[in-house]
Amino acid sequence: MRPDDVGAFIRTFRRFRDWCQRRPFWGGLLAIIAGLPILYFPYAHLSLGGLTFAMATTGGAGALIIGVLMMVLGVSVWVQPMTRVFAGVATILLALVSIPVSNLGGFGFGLVPGLIGGGLMAAWAPLKEPAAPAPVKSVTVPPPPVAPPTAVPPPAAPPTVVPPTDGLPVQRSGAAEADALGGSEPGEQGAGAAGEAR
């Protein structure tokens, strides 16, 4: 196969798959398959060796109507998927009516696919279309409100730490020592003595 043939096959398969997803495809197919044995067995002449078996019954016309209606309902849900509930219920009822009318529903070969196909048709629901994204509106975000400026207090002076003096001698400056001893600086002592002499 050439690559062009493979690409065409894949495109065709995808289109068919998309078509099947938009309708109750398998329910309709089973309804068509169910109508064939219901329609066939009342009119068939089976031969086994030299012996011919005729399955003709008094319900031959009823089997013809039931078989054709089931095939029509199967095609109708392909063409018009909105009729799925009606077609599904009608297919189930026709499959049940075919039990006494058409040789036990085509010997079960039409009854079982008819019941399953009718159930699939009635239960099918279309896929929800994805919502289109809403157009994006340009939204301008206002700047946050600015608080009025407040006076900032000056930074506090660091606390003074006084070292503990328990058990240590007190250190004094030179002037403080002289005052503590009862005198002042040496030059001042002479002036003080002269003042006393007068």
Automatic annotation (TrEMBL):
Keyword list, A-Z: Membrane, Transmembrane, Transmembrane helix
TM region(s), chain numbering: 24-43, 49-73, 85-101
Stretch list, region Disordered: 134-198
InterPro entries, alphabetized: DUF6114 (IPR046096)
Biased composition (Gly residues): 189-198
Pro residues: bias regions: 141-162
The protein's name: Integral membrane protein
